[in-house]
Amino acid sequence: MAEEKKLKLSNTVLPSESMKVVAESMGIAQIQEETCQLLTDEVSYRIKEIAQDALKFMHMGKRQKLTTSDIDYALKLKNVEPLYGFHAQEFIPFRFASGGGRELYFYEEKEVDLSDIINTPLPRVPLDVCLKAHWLSIEGCQPAIPENPPPAPKEQQKAEATEPLKSAKPGQEEDGPLKGKGKEKKAPPLLEGAPLRLKPRSIHELSVEQQLYYKEITEACVGSCEAKRAEALQSIATDPGLYQMLPRFSTFISEGVRVNVVQNNLALLIYLMRMVKALMDNPTLYLEKYVHELIPAVMTCIVSRQLCLRPDVDNHWALRDFAARLVAQICKHFSTTTNNIQSRITKTFTKSWVDEKTPWTTRYGSIAGLAELGHDVIKTLILPRLQQEGERIRGVLDGPVLSNIDRIGADHVQSLLLKHCAPVLAKLRPPPDNQDAYRAEFGSLGPLLCSHVVKARAQAALQAQQVNRTTLTITQPRPTLTLSQAPQPGPRTPGLLKVPGSIALPVQTLVSARAAAPPQPSPPPTKFIVMSSSSASSTQQVLSLSTSAPGSGSTTTSPVTTTVPSVQPIVKLVSTATTAPPSTAPSGPGSVQKYIVVSLPPTGEGKGGPASHSSPAPPQSSAPSPLGASALCGGKPEAGESPPPVPGTPKANGSQPPGSGSPQPAP
Amino acid sequence: MAALAEEQTEVAVKLESEGPPALLPPQAGDGAGEGGGGTTNNGPNGGGGNVAASSSAGGDGGTPKPTVAVSAVAPAGAAPVSAAAPEAGAPHDRQTLLAVLQFLRQSNLREAEEALRREARLLEEAVAGSGAPGEADGASAEAASTLLSRVTASAPGPAAPDPPGSGASGAAAVPVLATGPAAPGKVGSVAVEDQPDVSAVLSAYNQQGDPTMYEEYYSGLKHFIECSLDCHRAELSQLFYPLFVHMYLELVYNQHENEAKSFFEKFHGDQECYYQDDLRVLSSLTKKEHMKGNETMLDFRTSKFVLRISRDSYQLLKRHLQEKQNNQIWNIVQEHLYIDIFDGMPRSKQQIDAMVGSLAGEAKREANKSKVFFGLLKEPEIEVPLDDEDEEGENEEGKPKKKKPKKDSIGSKSKKQDPNAPPQNRIPLPELKDSDKLDKIMNMKETTKRVRLGPDCLPSICFYTFLNAYQGLTAVDVTDDSSLIAGGFADSTVRVWSVTPKKLRSVKQAADLSLIDKESDDVLERIMDEKTASELKILYGHSGPVYGASFSPDRNYLLSSSEDGTVRLWSLQTFTCLVGYKGHNYPVWDTQFSPYGYYFVSGGHDRVARLWATDHYQPLRIFAGHLADVNCTRFHPNSNYVATGSADRTVRLWDVLNGNCVRIFTGHKGPIHSLTFSPNGRFLATGATDGRVLLWDIGHGLMVGELKGHTDTVCSLRFSRDGEILASGSMDNTVRLWDAVKAFEDLETDDFTTATGHINLPENSQELLLGTYMTKSTPVVHLHFTRRNLVLAAGAYSPQ
User: Fold this and answer.
1) How far is CA B338 from the centre of its chain?
2) What is the ipTM of this complex?
3) Which end of chain A is more exposed for a tag (fewer CB within 10 A), N or C?
4) Which residues lie in Gly residues bias regions (chain B) (predicted)?
5) How far is A616 from chain B (nearest CA, A)?
């Protein structure tokens, strides 16, 4: 009987100051404390009474949300005149003000200019009520159509993964609100009579549609058609019904990486990483069960000694960067105190970095992986080793030319270190940046670091001013589109592309792109995804973004929007940038503007809101249905928008650098 | 206390004798002699009950007609005569009666007064004449009658029998004479509120105890109960809640605010969680002034909290209280609790938990003893013209054999008279029209094609989603043949959709109609105006959210009930409003047509359900007794009974014939929002805000099942056409299917269970659950089985 207090009955009453304020507002200056107290009690009681009545109307109206009209009806019950004019659909924000020892909450009423109202165009007429029928269940089986919710919500997937014995059908296990009903029933006798419930055998049988879908998706993901791939990746990233295919996808990825690392097939590795990214982006999937398969694959792509056939030319660095960001994202999402993912990953990276014999490629990957884990990791693990690493780099760069590959590697590592450490240092150290002090602390990297830090500071300052103007972030459930005008460190841009030793540039671009985002301690790296395609000039890249680029002209290039940076894209991006007049001011009108698309909005209609929606499907599910055969046909809406790529351009073939060749003449 | 308003009985009796379609409005006034017959089964208590009912029904702010005296009676119960008849059997009732009479006189409502007085006098005589047991009763009756005569002495006309002509006013008054146990009435209305009434009601709290001792009393009792034997503890624990409430109210009433507050703080955590809503109301009630208008408080005062306790436990309690000289608690037990003592084993905690939860405790055992004719009426015999083509088709499909026995079974079922069925003409039912017969034939044909459902053959569910409703969908109904869907909306509109290719057309204008050749065969087709054909018709007329909608069985009419206090009848031929039934002054939460048409029932915030006939603008019956809003109303398949579910967490079953409450089902822990009868009429399923569905055996008056699974209000329930499957839809956006056959399979309906009302519910919700189907953020507002057992569900998409 004496159970823990379940009731949260609060005896809240209005403060008596409120009564005073109200009285004052009505012109009654002096009001006794006692009167206030009485009024307070009375008013509180009446308000509660009305609220309780209003709840009744809410229940009868079959709603979960109390509306202002419910209050009106409750007042009407009491023969009180309803409050007119409070028909706000949305939350009414209360403003707060204090002063003179008083605190005040008020509702801001704007003065409305009638002529303004008259002159504004009429709002769209809300759609009329209509009736739509669909099959909720066919002979006891719920079809997976967009009108129905996804077959297994994330919570259930989680429940199945963590507590397989408990996960019966969703919602069945809840005790309901009747907790007071005898505790002895709650703990079922484990071995007494009751049949022991075993974990149901999970059957991984895919329907024919699902098999078709799986085949199409995987083929599109690793195929040669970029448009198809974009669609497939988007489907993976948004469709709600993929849960059953998750084990397949995960195996596909891990096996794919295993095979393609051996074959040094850079392009395929990139595609597979993009799939990982897409899976992680899908809000309906519970990936925990498959992280153990995905992490090794991703880690391989970061630290593998060789990822491509021609390490001197191919940009496998970008893949490492991207995979490093993925790992960071995985850590952020899935690391817990029990699985210790982050610390295990950190250990792996550190171990391979510390090792003297580690090749530059692996070294680069380890550092990138560590750096993406956030500022704290940089501070504690990378900064202390800067001096040592600087010496090593100098040894390769300044010393006798042993191998070109080593040189390139060292150069990349150097720029990577500069890129990641500069912002951290800028925050850590007080402003006067002294070359000598830096040299003393960080050795040979010191001077370079110093100049980078100075630049980082300047940029941060610039950002602080411009942040409103230059960054447009449309916030949706997932940040989808960031349009940032990244101030370019102008002089360094040109000419970097062709000289192998100066491949630092793409990194540079990324730095600027990242800095353009509002400063935050550890920016989620994977948000910054540069879309591009190798062969494309601006006219060809007509995904949704191209419309926002002012003119399809020569200088402003809107790179292709896909979900993941491929190797060329970054090079490509640079190349288009380099074709622009190099010395243009960063904020110049449009000429060097870079549009960096972070990721695609789920669909165009996300903003449309429920009003414009004619189907009950929430935005993300208006993407192709998971199992519908139509999901993969070419005739999807997006397909119509993006013209097929130029034939014969092997877009994502990482082994050749056509990207630099073909587009350059275009602008 | 099941009181009778005998005029209603008498009307019903008369109707019975007159034969079906001539259902008249209750004509009171004449036939007073018959009235006496009506009261006989009440024993000596009948008179008092009747009077109490009248006052309480008045209290609900009843009919809107200003001419009707009784609506003004509301504030009655004035206390000028409060000293009268102190030790009489029902002093309070008599006192109320006197007050009513006085009030009537003051208000110059002579006819009503006379009617009432005559009736009261008659009652007294009836009581006296029936040889009241014990002299005390007789004496009290005499005392009362002398009092009466004193009060009415100055009235102009003595109790001369009225000519039938004056029945008008009497008739008006009749519907308001409520039946059922003394209802608290709805005193919440500001307009009706009156001081003397409330103080009379509250006066019982006047006894002064030492306010500081209350906590001690209570914790003393708590200690005693917790230390008692296990078998008694569960039973005695039932005392906690009512005692807590009454002690708190006493403290508040006697203006010991601080003591009340600390008392509440200290002990409210001990109460069972299903009383939470009431406790919330109580917690806000901290001043004597607040008590005046508070309905919950009045419920507690006016209705005794009913506890069922075994004799042993009761003796134990009594001894304890006497030993401790704990008069405070003993007084409360005496005055405010009704302890229903039974012999035998004390009940277990589980058994108790299953039955408690309602606002006023459990139902008394005798409340569920009366006989209920739950069987189905005999279907009128209709020659089913066997369609040759149909037959051919069946034969070609190679199932001629199967069809024959099926048909026979249907035929035999309808021919045999169910022993539990009411007499065919117990209440007059409208005669079948030709179109009805056609519909019945259609129905039978469809029946032959019906899917046999079962655990292995689940029905398909077709979901009708209302899009762009902006949270405004409040009611849905589907016609029996599943051709039309009506939606009631918060913007006061009623919308009717046709879900078949056949569009909705209205009848032509009168001028055009006159041109039609009335002899032609297709005259019914010709009268329709092709230009008006559309899939959707919108009915405008209400001035508040439409909370209830119901199609008539013949699809010619639609009923809608609304926040504006009216029930409207719409024609689906012209798509206009035909009648607005005004009676409820408060929001009308639900309305439903009788399965045979003509009658309908409505229930609302004024705590009563009303029975209407479409051609009378005033209700034929008022079912009063619920202590809170009547949330949902359903007709029994045989149209002789009406079930109502209420916010007081009880379900009541009312006899349409005499207005009696024949069943009170307690056990729900939250306001009841959905009801449905099984097709065979034996069972009732009810769903409440606590997410549970309870199953009841009507004949035995027992709870027979509990279906747990939903996590939010169950707003729709429906049995499949053959009763094998129960579908439930809820605010938690799921439709669930339950195995009804299994649920009703082996019921404990032996004599012992029936006699004691002690039930042991099997915990088998999981086994009974056949399927759960999530919708996409769409609360399931309505469910319907088509004649072929396809489930239609409906709800409005409400994005989060």
Assistant:
1) 22
2) 0.74
3) N
4) 30-50
5) 6
CA distance B308 to A395: 94
Question: What is the SS3 assignment for B419?
Answer: coil
* Phi and psi angles of residue B357, each rounded to the nearest 5 degrees, phi first: 120, -20
Please list, in sequence order, all residues whose beta carbon lies within 8 angstroms of the beta carbon of residue B550, skipping any fewer than 6 positions away: B477, B558, B559, B560, B591, B592, B593, B600
B735 with B791: CB under 8 angstroms?
yes
Between positions 154 and 193 of A, the ones with CB within 8 A of B are: 168-172, 174, 176-182, 185
How far apart CA A650 and CA A635 sit, in angstroms, is 23
* Among the listed residues B78, B74, B79, B101, the one whose alpha carbon sits nearest the alpha carbon of residue B192: B74
Asked if B353 lies within 8 A of A181 by C-beta distance, the reply is yes
The identity of residue B213, as a single letter, is M
Whole-angstrom distance, CA of residue A296 vs CA of residue B648 = 61
* Of B478, B480, B524, B489, nearest in space to B505 by CA: B524
- Judged by CB atoms closer than 8 Å, whether chains meet at A176 and B191 is answered as no
b/e per residue, B509-521, with b = 16+ CB within 10 A?
eeeeeeeeeeeee
- Chain CA centroid to CA A83, Å: 43
Across-strand partners of B695?
A: B685, B705
Q: Which of A77, A131, A197 to mutate to test the interface with B (most CBs of B within 10 A)?
A: A131
> How far is B47 from B33, CA to CA, in rounded Å?
15
pLDDT for the residue numbered B624 = 92
What pLDDT shows up at residue B580?
94
- The pair of structure tokens assigned to B86 is 């102190």
* CA–CA gap between residue B743 and residue B760 (Å, rounded): 13
Instruction: Write the DSSP string, B732-745.
Output: TSEEEEEEHHHHTT
Interface contact B587-A78, CB threshold 8 A: no
In the three-class reduction of DSSP (H, G, I as helix; E, B as strand; rest coil), residue B653 is classed as strand
Structure confidence at residue A10 as a pLDDT band (50, 70, 90): low
Tell me how far apart the alpha carbons of residues A505 and A489 are, in angstroms, rounded to a whole number. Answer: 10
Three-class secondary structure assignment of A530-587:
CCCCCCCCCCCCCCHHHHCCCCCCCCCCCCCCCCCCCHHHHHHHHHHHHHCCCCCCCC
* pLDDT tens-digit series, residues A542-586: 333 333 334 333 333 334 333 333 333 333 333 333 333 444 344
Question: Are residues A214 and A622 in contact, defined by beta-carbon separation less than 8 angstroms?
Answer: no
Q: Which residue of A has its CA nearest to B771?
A: A140
Instruction: Name the one residue in this structure whose structure tokens are 């602390």.
Output: A441
Q: How near does any CA of chain B get to the CA of A656, in Å?
A: 49
Q: From start to end of A414-469, where are the E strands?
A: none
Buried b vs exposed e over A190-219: b needs ≥16 C-beta within 10 Å?
eeeeeeeeeeeeeeeeeeebbeebbebbbe
Q: Which residues of A touch B774 (CB under 8 A)?
A: 142, 148-149, 170
What does pTM read for this prediction?
0.61
Residue of A nearest to B237 (CA): A1
Task: Count CB atoms within 10 A of the CB of residue B456.
Answer: 9
Judged by a CB distance cut-off of 8 A, whether residue A615 touches chain B is yes
Give how far Cα B305 sits from Cα of B274, B359, B627, Å.
Answer: 16, 8, 12
Query: Which DSSP letter does residue B306 get?
Result: E
Name the average pLDDT for chain B. 74
Distances (CA, A) of B97 to B9, B45, B100, B121, B353: 21, 14, 5, 11, 39
Whose tokens are 């013949």? That residue is B554
A residues 298-357 lying closer than 8 A (beta carbon) to B:
none
Q: Cα-Cα-Cα-Cα dihedral of A491, A494, A498, A504, to 10°?
A: 50
Mean pLDDT for B26-40 is 37
Residue with tokens 């308000």: A47
Closest by alpha carbon to B488, among B578, B551, B582?
B551
What does chain A come to in residues?
Answer: 667
Could you tell me which residue, B185 or A66, shows the higher pLDDT?
Answer: A66
